[in-house]
Amino acid sequence: MRLSRLSKGRWLLVALTLPIALVALLPLRLAVGWVASDARGLSARGVHGSIWDGTIEQMRVGALPLGTLDAALSPLPLLLGRVRLNLARPANGASALHGTITIGHDRVGVDHLTASLPTAGLLAPLPIGALDVDDASVRFVRGRCDHAEGRVRARLDGALPGVARAQGLTGSIRCDGTRARLALASQSGQERLDLSIGATGDYIADARIAEPDPALEPTLTALGFVRVPGGFRLRTTGALE
After folding, report:
1. What is the rounded distance in angstroms from the CA atom of residue 180 to the CA atom of residue 192?
2. In terms of Cα–Cα distance, which of 212, 218, 184, 182 is closest to 198?
3. 10 Å Cβ neighbour count for 187?
4. pLDDT (tens digit per residue) in 21-68
5. What count of other Cβ atoms lies within 10 Å of the Cβ of residue 105?
6. pLDDT in tens, the chain (241 residues)
7. Helices marked H in the chain — which ranges?
8. What is the spatial distance between Cα 212 and Cα 201, in angstroms, rounded to a whole number?
9. Could you give the C-alpha distances from 87 to 53, 54, 120, 219, in angstroms and in order?
10. Bridge partner residues of 214 (DSSP)
């Protein structure tokens, strides 16, 4: 039996709208599962709601706790084979957070992230308690840093000779070869921290203090700094997982 023109039009409308309707009804936990399967170290205690209006409980990226976040999926990147999650948390008893995570077959990244990220001793023995990021974007494509920008402040949770605890270390993010690099410095510029991060989440932290007061040498040595030409240096490596 041949379909009438009207019937063909209706079938075409159904064929076009059905996939959209099915996607719209997907639970958020499936989208988060897709992201977690491709993103190293991403996990959550629980995921609730639809892909348009959901909640992720106690989300973590490796060792970095992000807390409980509102989340929604952007539909258009799906056409390119990418999952893009918009994340937000109002400042109600916790620090505000907003930004996006994008995962594709050849890329991973965050865009326009503003948040305070507790490092939970991740950079020990350096006494860095949190990284405050402001409109930061980092994207890796095929294992190489493709784009990086934004401002960062490293907040101290202990004493670091020469650095005012209230001010910490500040600087910017940029690509440096295949890696993303956070170049941070104290207000005087005598104390510096270079944090280099690779696509797999591995990092190299290189802290330098230029010719401090000799009376501070025992404190620096106790933290693990060693004397080098021009001052003291502490280099640590690890992974964000």
Report:
1. 17
2. 182
3. 13
4. 445 445 566 666 655 555 556 777 888 887 777 888 888 877 788 888
5. 9
6. 444 444 544 444 444 444 444 454 455 666 666 555 555 567 778 888 877 778 888 888 777 888 888 888 887 777 777 888 899 988 766 678 999 988 888 888 999 999 999 886 888 888 899 999 999 999 999 999 999 999 999 998 877 877 777 788 999 999 999 999 999 999 888 889 999 999 988 999 999 999 878 888 888 898 899 999 989 999 999 887 6
7. 5-24, 28-38, 217-223
8. 32
9. 11, 10, 21, 41
10. none
Nearest to 86 by CA among 65, 63, 102: 102
Grouping H, G, I as helix, E, B as strand and the rest as coil, residue 216 is helix
3-state secondary structure of 18: helix
Contacts of 42 (CB under 8 A, 6+ apart): 35, 36, 59, 60, 61, 62, 101
- DSSP state, residue 24: H
Give the C-alpha separation, 93 to 124, whole Å: 27
Tokens of 192: 């510096």
pTM higher than 0.85, yes or no?
A: no
Q: Residue 169 is encoded by which pair of tokens? A: 């270390």
Which amino acid makes up residue 42? L
Residue 142: CB atoms within 10 Å: 10
For 160-175, the pLDDT digits (tens) are 877 777 788 999 999 9
The owner of tokens 């989208």 is 31
How long is the chain? 241
Write out the two tokens for 239. 């992974």
- With beta carbons less than 8 A apart as the criterion, state whether 116 and 130 touch: yes
